[in-house]
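As described in the Methods, two query proteins were run sequentially through the folding procedure within a single session, without resetting any intermediate state between them. The first query and its resulting structure tokens are shown here.
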Amino acid sequence: MPALPATTATLYPSLYCDDAAAAIDFLECAFGFRRRLVVPGPDGRVAHSELTLGEAVVMLGSSRPERGCLSPRRLGGTSQGLSVFIEDPDTHCARARAAGAEIVQAPRDEEYGARGYMARDPEGHLWWFGTYRPGAYWNEG
């Protein structure tokens, strides 16, 4: 089987999860990600994985406390969120809600012209899915 061409994405965040295998299943079911690579680790852990949604790429693995890499649910909060472009936030939100995602903000129109919603996955990662694409309001120079 020939290898697939490498992604054109230039930023691919890495997420850490206490139950990485369940997180991968959830991201597929609730948000429509597609698993591309899963590298098993010892004791049923996930050493590394890569998932895609359109042009977006997310890497995910089991928490590594010895490196300070922890799931937000273990930390009791989050210090970042992920924003993903999708064509139809309302349909996407309904799918996420049906799969058990916590909807933090229902789909709405934003003052900058986008429509989107915010959800939290079971590990505590915060996601915004919507029609916004960065650049429309950037300043020159």
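Immediately afterward, the second query was submitted; its sequence and tokens are:
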Amino acid sequence: MTNVTNRGARTLADMALAELRQAIISGELAPGSPVRLQEQVERLSMSSVPIREALRLLERSGLVDRSPHRGAQVAEMSAQDLNETYMIRLELESMAVRLAAESMTEDDRDRLLGLMEQYADASRREDASARDIHAQFHMGLYELSGSKWLLRLLPMLWDNAERYRRLALPIRGTTEERIREHRAIVEAAAAGDPDEAERALRSHLSNSFDAAIERLRQQEEDAE
């Protein structure tokens, strides 16, 4: 009976985590805004227990800050946070893509390029599923590294970076340009060329960083 109860609590916590994570990444819950427990209890129609657990996990991933006096609030976005997030991503994702280049098969290549086609279609239709497909592509690529530690660390960085990527999209370039960048990473890895795969990945992430920092600095100037 205890196991059933624990599974039920875990499922509710997972649901709460998914809902709150989506609200933060999409900007529905803005940076710096409070995440009031009772409001989320009513919004999600569940008890406070799974929501507290979700907030604890979001704090670990850097999306939520908590303090004794202010309670939980969405983590602020800043140039320093953006810089640190992408600096670490560059190193870890470069490692992952180099390892992926050692094991990628033709089937892996076709699967990843298929996801890119789905992403392109969803992006052109401005469908919200594009973000999830984009994540599936990158995590599917990094899974080929075979590294459990990279797969533990990268999703945490990814969630925080997604807030900045959303900010950057209006000036990030066309869908076709972004697709070419993704294809270049996959084709290099599929060819067994870790140096070129890393170069393509670093170029891709740097383009996203440059657009995000430009938008963020503009927002900071507008707020002054």
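Confidence is low (pLDDT under 50) at residues 1-7. We note this only descriptively and draw no conclusion about the first query from it.
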